[in-house]
Amino acid sequence: MGILSVLVILFPDLKQLSNQFIIGILLAIAGTVITSIGDVLSLYNSKQRVNPIVANTIGMMGAVILLFMYTFIRGEHYTMPHQFNFWIGLLYLSVLASFIAWLGYLKLINNIGAAESGYMVAMFPAIGGIASVMMGESTLNIHLIIGIALATSGAYIALKNPKHTKVKRG
Hints:
Elements: H1 2-10, H2 19-47, H3 52-74, H4 84-112, H5 114-118, H6 124-134, H7 142-159
Helix pairs in contact: 1-7, 3-4, 6-7
């Protein structure tokens, strides 16, 4: 239902398949695979009693180092923007939308398991669609409404009778 949700939401854009659209779809699939691997590794870390804040900090620092190395190899230079909106946006994205949100997701993985928490990814198109409408980047339409309903229904069906076993502490 999650895949059907994405297809319904993207249906109006499927009429004009540009290279960027196809690359975006491939990147979304790759991101889903990477997220699934991360869920399993996060559950493993939880079972090993790895502190999620430490693990999150190490992961984020690793990403920053890789990005610095990538831009250095490409010969790019960093400039520090002076706009207040940039710094507020950066603070929101780095602290609230990344670090705090990821800690919540790690807690979810710890509580219900990697497989079950993966079903929550089906809600991402719904959340993204609602956020896009709220920010004025898209308009509410029938495809978005049906897609959100499908994503929500899919997550509900997948999680209504959990077959997980709680992580044992001991």
